[in-house]
Hints:
Elements: E1 9-10, E2 15-17, E3 25-27, E4 40-45, H1 47-57, E5 62-67, E6 73-76, E7 79-85, E8 93-99, E9 102-106, E10 128-133, H2 145-158, E11 164-167, H3 173-183, E12 190-192, H4 194-205, E13 213-215, E14 228-231, E15 248-252, H5 259-264, E16 269-271, H6 279-289, E17 293-299, H7 301-310, E18 314-317
Parallel strand pairs: 2-3, 3-4, 4-5, 9-10, 10-17, 11-14, 11-15, 12-13, 12-14, 15-16, 17-18
Antiparallel strand pairs: 1-2, 6-7, 7-8, 8-9
The protein binds zinc ion (2 copies).
Amino acid sequence: xxxxxHELHIGRINTYVDPRQPQERxxxxxxxxxxxxxxxxxxxxxxxxxxxxxARYGLDCAxxxxxxxxxxxxxxxxxxxxxxxxxxxxxxxxxxxxHKDCRIVVTGDYKRGADRTCTPFELVPCDILVxxxxxxxxxxxxPDPALEINRLLESVAANKERAHLIGAYSLGKxxxxxxxxxxxxxxxxxYLHGAQVKLCTLYQQLGxxxxxxxxxxxxxxxxxxxxxxxxxxxxxxxxxxxxxxxPVPAMASGWMSVKQRAKQSGVELPLVISDHCDWNxxxxxxxxxxxxxxxxxxxxxxxxxxxCQRMGLAAEPLSLQGYEDEGEE
Length: 329
Ligand SMILES: [Zn+2]
Ligand SMILES: [Zn+2]
């Protein structure tokens, strides 16, 4: 019998991981809204996740906050808690829970690929692995994001009279796209929809250099030809987009590999940029942790459960409702 139940509740210390309802004590893996909720009494998280929560929901969004740095071990009664980098967004953490001889890792959202807006994923050996499965089907094989950014830059170069409008969620994806552009040598100002400004500023305050960013409200229509603007996906079809000269609607998301999704959202230039593991990375992680038991949640559970069972592991889906990543919809 594990000391963590299927609701991700640690009964011995009455603490939940990423609870959906307000709780006495919560460990929060990262700042996306499906994981970080308002109204817990005590929140334990990385300093960056606490900063993100306070920026989004206000300083009093929890009764109290306890920061825990990556790799620092906290003992509460006979349970030890350690946070490790998940490589998903700034501050994102996997949670290692230890009780007696049993090690349980709750991954939260994670990815294995490089991302210079956050600390890289660290593999944590364990007995029970609770893994997300947002892209848990063999058909999901994420391309190299640098190639996606090259396609964007080629389109910008070929359409100097048009403005490129990239739909990207405000926490994580926006800053990742900006950083990828900088890494590929793009050093022009990048324009931001008003909704993207606050968290970009926070990232910069926390030491992530994003180069020159300009609120699009400060630009004239003519001056936006040949430029790149990042906006919430919902703004692409909005009246707001009329301020741009003949805009090229683009979207950065792991879901852009699904042609139908790109088509439905009216996207001309789909960019497959994911902040979650693809199928191979999920299997790689399952193997490398050495876990004998895999709990799969948060996405397409069945295929991964079946694949784990074929590898001789005990595996089952957790029916946790409502975790569809805002950063990846
Ligand atoms: Zn997330
Ligand atoms: Zn999520």
